Amino acid sequence: YDSIVYNAKHMPDGGESWGRLWDDRYKGRLSLRDDALSSIQPVALFLGYNPNQLTTAQLEDCKKFLISKKGHFRTLWSTYAEAVNLMRSEEVWALWGWVPMVSELRKAGMDVRYGLPKEKAIAWFGTLIVSKDTKVLPSVYAFLDWVLDEKFATSLTKDFDYRMTTTAHMKNMTPDEIKEQQLDNIDALMKNLFIQELPENLNDWLRVWSEFKSA
């Protein structure tokens, strides 16, 4: 899931919320991704809206809110490396981000956390699609079996902290790692996730994001 990457040295624990990304106490040390979908979704959740079904009026509310908080954002990041560097240099203390960023920064010795907002984190699923025209179906199935098996799942979990759709790798995880990834209570984890969909009115989202940036 996508959530808040934050530096615990500068930000205390507790009160996990998307509001951390526009908290007045950290004005000028916050960042969003320069992406309409990624950055409007958490605002919608924070305001109590369903991001998958935002009306024109609700989108306008999200825009007005973002504009009111624009001074809180030191910058809008575009690439993975840019986001990691902003956190590593401590120019930014919290941003909308991805879990591999946390893994990389922790390996560098930083006390970086990945919040699970009370308004729900934004979940997505990576998928593999088999073309109906493939001429190598046995090889495709062999690859899919490998992806679902222990070695691949263990690698993605250990290296990037991704949650997997298999449990074959959990025997290679320590109890602390299992708890960290909330795999000790998957039902509870799923209840705290919002499954995102691509909105039908995406053009309106892009317009709103552009108007926020130019405000």
Write the topology of this structure.
Elements: E1 3-7, E2 30-33, H1 36-46, H2 56-68, E3 73-77, H3 80-88, E4 94-97, H4 99-107, E5 112-115, E6 121-123, H5 137-148, H6 150-160, H7 175-180, H8 186-191, E7 193-195, H9 202-214
**What is the global morphology?**
globular
Overall pLDDT level: 93
The N- to C-terminal Cα distance equals 30 Å
Indicate the percent of residues in helices.
40-55%
Q: What is the number of E strands?
A: 7
Contiguous uncertain segments of 5+ residues:
none
Question: Tally the helices: what do you get?
Answer: 9
Based on secondary structure, the structural category is alpha/beta
N-to-C series of helices and strands: EEHHEHEHEEHHHHEH
Q: Strand content of the residues, in percent?
A: 5-15%
Short descriptors:
alpha/beta; globular; 9 helices; 215 residues; two-stranded parallel ribbon; 7 strands
Structure, described:
The strands form 2 sheets. A 5-stranded mixed beta sheet has the order 3-2-4-1-5, sandwiched between helices. It is of the alpha/beta class. It is globular, with a radius of gyration of 19 Å. Helices cover 42% and strands 13% of the residues. The protein is built from 9 helices and 7 strands, in the order E-E-H-H-E-H-E-H-E-E-H-H-H-H-E-H.
Summarize the structure.
With 215 residues, the protein is an alpha/beta fold.
